Amino acid sequence: MVELKKAYNSSGGEDDKMFKKTHYDDPAPSTKEFPMDAPARSRSMLRITILGSLILGIILSLLPSFTSSFNIASAASSCPTNQSHLVAFQNGRWFLSGVNVPWQSGGYGADFGTVEEWGQHTYSTDTTRQMFATLQANGINTVRWWVFADGRGAPEFAATSGGAVTGLDANTLPSMADAITLAQEYNIRIVFNLWSFDMLLPDSNGYARGEHAGGHTDLITDATKRTSFINKALLPMLAYPVPGTNYTIGTHPNVLGWDIFNEPEFGISDLGAVDPQISAPVTLAQMQRFIAEISGAIHRNSNQLTTVGSAAMRWNSDTALGATGNVWKDAALTPYDAQGYLDFYQIHYYGWMNGDGVYWSYAPTVIDWASAGFDKPTVIGEFPANAGDTGYNPAGLLEKLHSNCYGGAWAWSYESVDSAGGWNDIAAAFNAFNTTYAHEVNITSGGTPNPTVTPVPPTTTPVPPTTTPVPPTTTPVPPTPTPAPATSTVIYADNLANGWANWSWNSTVNLRSSAKKKVGKRSIAITYNQAWAGFYLHNDQALNTQGYSKVRFWAHGAGGKQKLNFWVRSSDGTTSPSVALPTLTSRWMQIEIPLSQLGNPATLSDLVIQDAAGRAQSVFYIDQIELVP
Fold first, then answer.
1. What is the DSSP letter of 598?
2. What tens digit of pLDDT does each residue of 224-234 get?
3. Residue 200 carries which DSSP code?
4. Is the pTM of this model over 0.90?
5. Which end of the chain is more exposed for a tag (fewer CB within 10 A), N or C?
6. Model confidence over 254-293: pLDDT tens digits?
7. How far apart are the first and last CA of the chain?
């Protein structure tokens, strides 16, 4: 199926009508733009070219100062010596040389999640291993890989139409972790793309694109549903352990970052480029809030980067010819979340964006990084692997993007999902390019030192907490500005204390169970329904830990011999080391975890008891959770 897409000039009129082939009914979708009927277009273009040449000659003679200044601005000059145009990551600044992996084997939205209606889950360890080995052999350092797309495979929703997010299916996180494990083996960094504008298409059903494909405008516009996505999908994703390592997905060094939204401009009513099949677009302010809140959550809960896959330079530059303006700059995002900024920009480029070079052009081959007024490194997040309609061959296109001081280039696409080409079209060009610029591409060495972006791995050896209460000290505590608390602060005693909320994932939690109890009349019954599930308590008003020394609670395994880890998070988003708990038994045991084993957090806003066995676990009970002096 095709849809009509238009390119606009600086005054908002139509320059040219473009057809955009899409994936609404196509199992191997495309989001690339192509010209209209070629024979008819060729005849009309001949006439337009002759007339245009005459008009252009007049313009050039009348406006010499304008054209001269533009040519100077767009001519490639030497890039900043401090490499500020390259992406800061892992103790250096790098050119991100890579490819898009929108989906494997035609599985749009089904690589990591599962389209239950027809049992489609296309992620393959063998396919990924072969791909990463090929990419590594040709010097590639990054891939941009789609996760949710339009929502047809993941996350899980509370309703068949729209609805709040309830969690992730059993395949999503293990598949992502497997891909990360292979990326580590082959020295590849992954940028996971979360959503695409396709999520805003009309709601589908199980016989078309999938029960949960599209119809998710409310996930952007409704604060409660935005929060459900963050709490039930994003945070569990970031906290998910990568097997065989001491990293989570959110701390693993082979996850470079997160592309929050692919081409959001095609779903924004204010920008004049809404996809014709989107009947319920969102406003620019609503999309900016959504992206800022997601980016802020990632910044607070990981050490990775964030970006947005802007459809064109038109919406990401204040100075490009005919540009609307940079709607993703810090000033547009941080009012919604102080940490909602992007770490680098990302723009997409196809041949139609070359424009006329006089009134409008969104082409990074025409307008270099400095002339576009970018204040952050900017990666060309999509460009045709076959360089179609750009005026360059693949090798020349890579060289031009690099000499114009862009911070990376990701070809669309590895598996040749459409007419923009595939890996075979650009492999030789990438190989030569990555060899020439190895000092900027090989993330294992070189680069400009940048210690502030070096991720700090979690502790390598979890330290088991004591199961015996620590006797009080006999040494007087020296005075402090804040007096030491005389008693413990209760987090749970028959009920959650004020301010605490249950944010558990992939778990069944009963906060008022009477089946077993140690203190009072109730305890918390917890069942892990999937591997790496978590019992998660959150408080927006974090506790000040000054004067406290440990977290204490009672646990009963009901004969399940559960294996668990315990960790906390501070109000600034810092996650503690993970502490292994004693294997639970069929009797109550009191567990005390010194704050020193948790990195001595200054505040405590989140408390998590997580599955450590890598499988579903039977019911166990927790009672009387408190922070004690």
1. G
2. 999 999 999 99
3. G
4. no
5. N
6. 999 999 999 999 999 999 999 999 999 999 999 999 999 9
7. 66
